[in-house]
Design brief:
Elements lengths: L1 E4 L4 E5 L3 E7 L5 E8 L51 E4 L10 E9 L18 E9 L4 E10 L4 E10 L5 E13 L4 E9 L2 E9 L3 E7 L11 E6 L9 E6 L5 E7 L5 E7 L6 E3 L4 E3 L3 E6 L2 H16 L13 E3 L1 H4 L5 H13 L4 E4 L27 H11 L3 E6 L3 E2 L4 H5 L19 E2 L5 H15 L5 E4 L21 H19 L4 E4 L9 H6 L2 E3 L6 H11 L8 E2 L2 E2 L12 H8 L5 E3 L7 H23 L1 E4 L9 E7 L5 E8 L10 E2 L9 E4 L5 E3 H7 L1 E2 L11 E8 L1
Parallel strand pairs: 21-22, 21-31, 22-23, 23-26, 26-27, 27-28, 28-29, 30-31
Antiparallel strand pairs: 1-2, 2-3, 3-4, 5-10, 6-7, 7-8, 8-9, 9-19, 9-20, 10-17, 10-18, 11-12, 11-14, 13-16, 14-15, 15-20, 16-17, 24-25, 32-33, 33-34, 34-39, 35-38, 36-37, 36-39
Length: 729
C-alpha cells in the first residue's frame, strides 16, 4: 500500500508487516524517515535539526545553520554539495565538476509493478503490487533522477531502481549511480555479508557496524565467489527467531558494491549498486541510464522470517521456471564420471544405469564439441565432435530418449580458446586492451558480449543446438574478466564495457528464453561465482558450488539459504573420495545434503555396487515423494554448521503446516556422546504429527518446545545422517 499526503509531503509504503516512510522536507530535499516494523502516523518527528560545526548549509537555507545535507537522512544521497557521507550519485559535468544536488519535483503512483528494460526485476500482477515514482532534479546540471519503488505487500518486499535522465544539451558522465540508499538512524547494528572463494562460497561473516565505512564488492566482472550481492543489517542481538533485520539484495551479475557507513552522529547509511570501479557512463542529451534493481525486506522477527519471505518472493515473482510448481526431473551429469574422455556408447551406458534407478534427465557436460579434449582448445566452436558422437547430436539424443529420459547439454557461450576456429576467424572479438598481452583463465579468453555481432553469432550457434530435443542447458562461465576494453567503443566510453557486458549476457539469455520458454537453464560460474538474484531471473536454478563434498556443502548451502530458495540451489550427489577435498562420506549423507537443492547425481553410476545402487534408487524415490515439500516449503535453519555443534539440522515445512521434513547430518564422532534433543520449528502447535509413519503421536507444541530426542545410533561414526518425515493426522 502506497499513501501520499500532498499537504505534508509525506509518503508511506506499507507492507503486511513493515512500513517505509519518507518526506519532502525543507528546501524540497527528500528525507528518509523510517523503515521497520509496521507503524501508523507521521514519523517526521524523528528528524532532528541542529547547528553542526563543519557541516555546510545549502544556499536555500540562507542564515539557517540548523539544516545541513551532511547530517540529514536523505532518500538518495548526493555529492559535492555538503554531504560528505557515502554518495548515491556522482555526476561529471561538462565543466569538469563532480557534483549532484537533487530536489523534489513531483511523483506518480500506479497499480502494478514497474519493469526495467534489459534488466532483471521482480514482477507481479496488477492487483498484487504498486509502484511509486518520485522525481528529483539537479536544476543546474539539467539532470533528472527518477526513484522507482515497487511494493509487493504480501512478501514485505520493497524494490528500488533509479533512472537518470540528461535534459541538457551537452553530454554528462555518470561516475556512480547506486540503486539503493537506506538511512537507519541508529548505530547499534551488525553487518552480515556472505563471503568466501571458489569451492567455499557465501559463508556468513558478521561484525558490528563501526565508525567509518565497511563494504563488500566485486570488480571481477561477475558478482563473484568472494562476495555476494546480498547483505543484512540487523540488531546486535538478532538471531533466527528474534530481532529486527534488514536484507538487501542487488539483482545484478557484474561488478557491485554494498557499503555501510556509520557517521559522526551515530547514524548508519547503506548504499548498494554498480561498483564505481571503471564505471563511467556517457549520458548524451536526452538519454536515460537505468540502474539494476535492488530489493529490501525488513523482518521484525529475525533471520528466519526474512529468509522465508525472500524465498517466497524469489520463487514466485522473480524466477521464470518452465516447470512452475511441477517437480523438475532428477538428473545425472557425466562430468565427474568421464571428464573430457568419453564416447557416445559410454554416455548411453551411464544413461541406461540412470534410467534403471529412476533418474529422468541425462546431462552431457563439457567435451562434446569441436576439438575439445582438454581445457585449452575448442571453446567457441559449438558444433558436434562426431569422432565422439557419430551421427551427431540428434543420434545421441534419440538413444537417450529411447531409454525414457530427457536430454540436457553443457555450454560456455561467453568464452573462447585461442585454439578454436572462432578465435582464428575473429581474434578481435575478445576483451583485450590494444598493445597489451592478454591474461588467460582456465586456458580461455572472454568474448566481448557488449558487442551485438558477437552475441548474434553465439545466439545462432546455440539455436543450432536447441533445434534438437534439448530439455536442459547448463550455462557455464569459468573465469573473471580482465583487460576490459571493447574494439567498438571510443575511448570516452570504455568505462561502460563492464556494465554493457552484463547487459549483453542478459540480452542473449532473454532471447533464448523468449524463443525456448520451456527450456530449463541452470546457471553456473565455476560453481557459485555468479549466484545472484539477477541471474535467477534468467536461469531459475544455479549450480551452488563446484565443491560437492557433503560436509563442506552444509556451510555453503546454509549461507546461501539466507537469501536464496532451495529450488534455486543446484546440488548433486558425487563420488568419494570427493575430488575437492578427498573426504569420504556415506552415500546416504550425500543424498540428504543434495536433497536440500535441485537434486541430482554427478558420478559414474556404472561403478557403484549393487548396494549403492539400491541406496540411489531409494533416494530418488524419496526425493520425488517429498519434492513439493522440499522445493516449496518454508525453510528453517535449526542449527548452524559454524557453531561447533555435533550436528547440523534444517527443516522444510509445508504451507499448511501439515507436513515437515527434518534433515540432520553429524560431524566427527566422539566416544560416549551426550544425549541430544532437537527442537523443531514452524509446526502447528495444535496439530498431532506422526514421524515416519510410526505409532507414537506428538503435538506440534511438544516437538517445538519439548523437542525430539535424536537416536544415540546417529552419533556412531563420522558424517552420519537422518531424515524425519512428519505428517499431521
Amino acid at each position: 500500500m502506497i499513501l501520499q499526503n500532498e499537504t505534508t509531503g509525506l509518503f508511506t509504503l506499507h507492507t503486511r508487516n513493515t512500513t517505509y516512510q519518507m518526506k519532502v522536507g525543507d528546501y524540497r530535499v527528500l528525507l528518509h524517515l523510517y523503515y521497520g516494523p509496521r507503524l501508523e502516523g507521521d514519523l517526521s518527528y524523528l528528524v532532528r535539526y541542529a547547528d553542526r560545526s563543519h557541516s555546510p548549509n545549502p544556499n536555500e537555507a540562507g542564515d539557517n545553520r540548523m539544516f545541513s545535507l551532511d547530517v540529514m537522512p536523505q532518500e538518495y544521497s548526493t555529492c559535492g554539495v555538503g554531504d560528505y557521507r557515502l554518495p548515491s550519485l556522482e555526476l561529471e559535468l561538462p565543466n569538469g565538476s563532480h557534483t549532484a544536488n537533487l530536489r523534489y519535483t513531483g511523483c506518480e503512483i500506479c497499480s502494478g509493478k514497474y519493469e526495467l528494460e534489459g534488466l532483471p526485476a521482480f514482477y507481479a500482477s496488477e492487483d498484487k503490487a504498486e509502484t511509486l515514482v518520485i522525481f528529483l532534479e539537479d536544476a543546474a546540471a539539467h539532470v533528472g533522477v527518477e526513484l522507482y519503488y515497487g511494493v509487493l505487500e504480501e512478501y514485505d518486499l520493497i524494490t528500488r531502481a533509479v533512472r537518470v535522465v540528461n535534459r541538457g544539451t551537452e553530454p554528462v558522465y555518470l561516475q556512480q549511480a547506486a540503486s539503493l540508499c537506506l538511512e537507519l538512524q541508529r548505530p547499534d547494528l551488525d553487518f552480515i555479508t556472505f563471503d568466501g572463494h571458489h569451492a567455499r562460497e557465501r559463508i556468513p561473516s558478521r561484525s558490528p557496524v563501526r565508525p567509518g565505512v565497511q563494504s563488500v564488492n566485486s570488480n571481477r566482472g561477475i558478482s563473484s565467489h568472494q562476495h555476494n550481492p546480498f547483505v543484512v543489517l540487523c540488531e546486535q542481538d538478532a538471531n533466527e527467531d528474534h530481532g529486527v533485520c534488514y536484507g538487501a539484495m542487488l539483482l545484478y551479475s557484474g561488478n557491485f558494491e554494498a557499503s555501510v557507513e556509520r557517521n559522526q552522529l551515530e547514524d548508519s547509511r547503506l548504499v548498494m549498486g554498480i561498483h564505481p570501479y571503471h564505471f563511467r557512463w556517457k549520458l548524451e542529451p536526452g538519454a536515460v541510464f537505468t540502474t539494476p534493481e535492488a530489493a529490501l525486506i525488513c523482518s521484525p522477527c529475525g533471520f528466519g522470517q526474512m529468509s522465508q519471505q525472500l524465498h517466497r518472493a524469489i520463487r514466485t515473482n522473480l524466477r521464470r521456471d518452465p516447470y512452475g510448481r511441477t517437480r523438475k526431473p532428477v538428473l545425472v551429469n557425466n562430468w565427474e564420471a568421464t571428464y573430457f574422455d568419453f564416447t557416445a556408447d559410454q554416455l548411453v551406458e551411464i544413461a541406461r544405469e540412470a534410467a534403471g534407478l529412476g533418474i529422468e534427465l541425462f546431462v552431457m557436460d563439457d567435451g562434446w564439441f569441436g576439438n575439445r579434449n582438454d581445457d585449452f582448445r575448442g571453446l567457441g566452436d559449438w558444433y558436434v565432435n562426431e569422432k565422439k558422437l557419430p551421427g551427431g547430436l540428434g543420434a545421441l539424443i534419440d538413444r537417450i530418449k529411447g531409454l525414457g529420459m530427457k536430454f540436457g547439454i553443457w555450454v560456455e557461450p561467453e568464452m573462447v580458446n585461442e585454439d578454436s576456429d572462432l578465435y582464428r576467424t575473429h581474434p578481435d572479438w575478445i576483451l583485450n586492451v590494444p598493445g597489451r598481452v592478454f591474461s588467460r583463465g582456465r586456458g580461455q579468453l572472454v568474448l566481448d558480449f557488449s558487442r551485438q555481432d558477437v552475441r548474434d553469432h553465439i545466439y545462432h550457434a546455440l539455436t543450432e543446438i536447441l533445434a534438437h530435443d534439448v530439455s536442459y542447458v547448463k550455462w557455464d562461465m569459468n573465469r573473471c574478466l580482465t583487460e576490459v576494453w571493447s574494439a567498438l567503443l571510443p575511448s570516452d566510453r570504455q568505462g561502460e564495457v563492464y556494465h554493457r557486458y552484463v547487459l549483453g549476457v542478459y540480452d542473449l539469455l532473454e532471447r533464448i528464453h523468449q524463443d525456448y520458454p520451456q527450456l530449463l537453464i541452470e546457471g553456473c560460474c565455476g560453481g557459485g561465482g555468479r549466484f545472484d538474484a539477477g541471474m535467477l531471473y534468467y536461469t531459475p536454478q544455479i549450480w551452488c558450488s563446484d565443491n560437492t563434498d557433503a560436509v563442506d556443502r552444509l556451510g555453503i548451502q546454509y549461507g546461501t539459504s539466507f537469501c536464496y530458495p532451495i529450488c534455486a540451489i543446484g546440488a548433486h550427489v558425487s563420488a568419494v573420495p570427493n575430488e575437492q577435498n578427498g573426504r569420504m562420506t556415506p552415500m546416504e549423507t550425500r543424498g540428504v545434503v543434495a536433497m536440500s537443492g535441485t537434486f541430482g547425481y554427478e558420478l559414474d553410476l556404472r561403478r557403484l555396487s549393487q548396494a549403492e545402487k539400491e541406496i540411489v534408487s531409494r533416494q530418488v524415490a524419496e526425493f520425488k515423494a517429498h519434492a513439493d515439500l522440499i522445493q516449496w516449503g518454508d525453510y528453517y535453519r535449526l542449527t548452524s554448521p559454524f557453531d561447533n555443534t555435533p550436528y547440523t539440522a534444517w527443516e522444510q515445512v509445508s504451507e499448511d503446516r501439515r507436513e515437515a521434513l527434518v534433515s540432520i547430518v553429524t560431524g566427527s564422532t566422539r566416544a560416549t556422546p551426550p544425549f541430544f534433543i532437537l527442537r523443531l520449528k514452524g509446526l502447528d502447535p495444535n496439530l498431532t504429527y506422526r514421524i515416519d509413519g510410526g505409532e507414537t503421536l506428538y503435538t506440534g507444541a511438544m516437538l517445538m518446545t519439548g523437542g525430539y530426542p535424536l537416536p544415540v545410533s546417529l552419533m556412531m561414526g563420522d558424517y552420519q545422517s537422518l531424515q524425519l518425515y512428519l505428517k499431521a493426522e
